[in-house]
Amino acid sequence: METIIEHINVMGSFVFAISGALIAMRKKLDPFGVLIVAFVTAVGGGTVRDMLLSKRDVFWLFDTTIIYVILTGACIAMLFKDKLRFFDKPLFFYDAVGLGLFTITGVQIGIDASLAPMICILLGTITGVFGGVIRDIIVNEIPVIFKKEIYATISIAGGAVYLILVRLDVQNPYLQIIPILGIIIARIIAVKYNISLPTIYKKDHD
Amino acid sequence: METIIEHINVMGSFVFAISGALIAMRKKLDPFGVLIVAFVTAVGGGTVRDMLLSKRDVFWLFDTTIIYVILTGACIAMLFKDKLRFFDKPLFFYDAVGLGLFTITGVQIGIDASLAPMICILLGTITGVFGGVIRDIIVNEIPVIFKKEIYATISIAGGAVYLILVRLDVQNPYLQIIPILGIIIARIIAVKYNISLPTIYKKDHD
Amino acid sequence: METIIEHINVMGSFVFAISGALIAMRKKLDPFGVLIVAFVTAVGGGTVRDMLLSKRDVFWLFDTTIIYVILTGACIAMLFKDKLRFFDKPLFFYDAVGLGLFTITGVQIGIDASLAPMICILLGTITGVFGGVIRDIIVNEIPVIFKKEIYATISIAGGAVYLILVRLDVQNPYLQIIPILGIIIARIIAVKYNISLPTIYKKDHD
């Protein structure tokens, strides 16, 4: 289990490093600025999560693999920046994958620390969402969670699904694959069909 | 004592959740965005304080009550958003109450950790002030501590008063009520009469 | 060793408090706002570093000396604000000195915690860079690390030099003086001659 979560964390760091590098290049930062934004995006969510848990060391302090993975992701993004367009919005795609992967690692770490279900889901959302939020604050974009399409809601729902699958004793790798793919697909649908939460404001000219 | 501080913390979370929700609705965020800003505003100051103290777990990790209280505060703000205007500036009012309540909890936690008086006051100010600062940074307003009327100064003075009352062995509930009310009233007076610190700049056309 | 690092930390806090106060006065903050920005600038980098290390208490929690040093630095900046111009850009100068001093303390703390060399350098850069980054975010300037001239790159190089000197068993005080002066001088040269990293973007009209 430990190892599966470890692998998911490495993959999440990789895709979030790419997403951070992409947005940094859009802002024309120099190569070093691109590396910094890639690093912060990749480790931001997990770092906040680990700082909240007083007994956990921040995950990348004792694990240089993650640092190399992030460097690799950022360099790939810089070298192949015109070739990363599997989708017409590559930033959005890597971000969605990272959201799915990191949400699950956060929930699992909450379970390992015997926290209440609601707090586990919250930790999952913090892990999944904060890297992108810090990335957007640093480069002065509107944080992705405040954009119109649902984002944190999907992370919360995905975390809840994972928690239920854990209770139902679903086996690896379905236990992880179902909620991760669920989050990624839900996010793609939300952006494609422009799905947002119902408004609480009266229509007014503002 | 533990329990009194606990109650004050719950009340502070409630009013700060309302203040966060109010400012989020002013920015027309969707219901989920409102919840996030309410949550961050309510737990921000205490979270920073608890992360600074390496021996303390972040207070809301093991306490789902706080989460429900914040959800309740945010929902009340959304449902009754036109009816919260006891004062003509409701955001400012809830913020002042939260500042008073949280400052005291921060100072008390510093005392419990046997920190120096000056550091206790600093922890109180961080607890009282940071929720509002993070709220304002997230929604792109000028942080409340940098607005013209005195704000952090009042938190510091209130923290010092609490520390003196503790030394003088003043009994519950006066021990808490005096500095809390003092901070709230001082803040109302400061805004009403536009009280600010003396300037250190020469009058110049800038 | 402990004591040398302690002294360097005090000096770094002093110069960063001045740099924070200078930028706060440029933004015409009131005296209390100047104190807050000075404090955050001086302790920001070390605080993030200490929060990352779950076994370390944040350095200023048990050390009121630092608080007095910061207060002194901020007051000197307020009283003599027109006389701090040894260089024609005083903010830049104090910032460069702080970068040099704090980078070394961060690397040393990483060594003391037996972290991998790469992580030690990263801790040094975080310690040296984050105070200035938080300062710039608070007062709404472009963070210093994203400006055109090399900045974090110098901190990383200086941290690597310090690590090599430690391996070579160079004695105090040269062990510290060489990388600190190296960082300060490199930063002055970078700004004076406008040295930046090579661009990764094709020249285009953007």
Quick summary of this structure?
In chain A, 69% of the residues lie in helices and 0% in strands. The first copy, chain A, has helices at 2-26, 31-52, 64-79, 90-112, 117-138, 152-167, 174-192. Chains in contact: A-B, A-C, B-C.
What report would you give on this structure?
- 3 copies of one chain form a homotrimer.
- By secondary structure, chain A is mainly α.
- The first copy, chain A, has one domain (2-192).
- Chain A has 7 helices and no strands.
- In chain A, α1 packs across α2 (31-52), α2 packs antiparallel against α3 (64-79) and α4 packs across α6 (152-167).
- The longest helix of chain A has 25 residues, at 2-26.
- The first copy, chain A, is globular and about 45 Å long.
- Chain A starts with a helix and ends in a 14-residue tail after the last helix.
List the helices and strands and how they pair.
3 copies of one chain form a homotrimer.
Chain A: H1 2-26, H2 31-52, H3 64-79, H4 90-112, H5 117-138, H6 152-167, H7 174-192
Helix pairs in contact in A: 1-2, 1-3, 1-4, 2-3, 2-5, 4-5, 4-6, 4-7, 5-6, 6-7
Which structural traits does this protein have?
homotrimer, 206 residues, mainly alpha, 7 helices, 69% helix
